[in-house]
Amino acid sequence: GKYFRSAMEGFEKDDYETVAEAVIKDHILVHLQNDNHAKFNLLIFMLQKLYALVDQTTSPDNPDALQFQEALLPGHLITVFLKDRIQDWLQKSKRLIMEEITKNKSFELNNSLEIRKFLSKYTTSVGRAIETLIKVGRANSQSMLDLPQREGMTIQAERLNFHRYISHFRSVHRGSSFAKMRTT
Predict the structure, then answer these.
(1) Is residue 123 included in any domain, yes or no?
(2) Enclosing domain of residue 85
């Protein structure tokens, strides 16, 4: 917790143990929810695989194997993008309100009308960002680092003939890097 407290938003005044629990819960093996025993076992298993790979007692995993393929559905992408945009807006709003409080001592946090009036000056259109994502297929985000690419998220369905058009809805797009290759 000592090393992550400065990076974790909202944990500046908490003790190290609380920060460490939040890091483990929210950022390490999040698919295992709150089961710390299962997270520990998976980390040990991953270390065993790493040591076996370094010792050359096992071969590296094939990234083209079916077990490593993952389909990013449109709803999941839009949800992640929406969450990212709302978090950016909340952080910006917090920063602007803190600056306003330091500049203007008469600013009241309890007055919701004053806060709404202040924040209405600095609105960002989350809907327009999602619309651009759908139209252009480019995710302009700094925190979506877990995606393998940031562009080429959409495909224009070509309507040369009916079979070509319908094939766009039956296939899985492997990404813009694969679309540019001549071998696939």
Answers:
(1) yes
(2) 74-152
pLDDT in tens, 8-53: 877 888 888 898 888 888 888 888 888 889 999 999 999 999 999 9
Residue 65 lies in a domain: no
Q: Which residue has the tokens 């500046």?
A: 12
Amino acid occupying residue 60: P
Structure tokens at 68: 């490593």
Global pTM? Answer: 0.65
Output the pLDDT for position 74: 82
Residue 144 lies in a domain: yes
Q: Do the domain assignments include residue 67?
A: no
Q: How many CB atoms lie within 10 A of CB 81?
A: 21
Question: 148 and 93 in one domain?
Answer: yes
Burial 152-171 (b: 16+ CB within 10 A, else e): bbbeeeeeeeeeeeeeeeee
**Low pLDDT (below 70) residues in the chain:** 142-146, 173-184
| Residues constituting the chain | 184
Do both 79 and 47 map to the same domain? no
SS3 of residue 63 by DSSP? coil
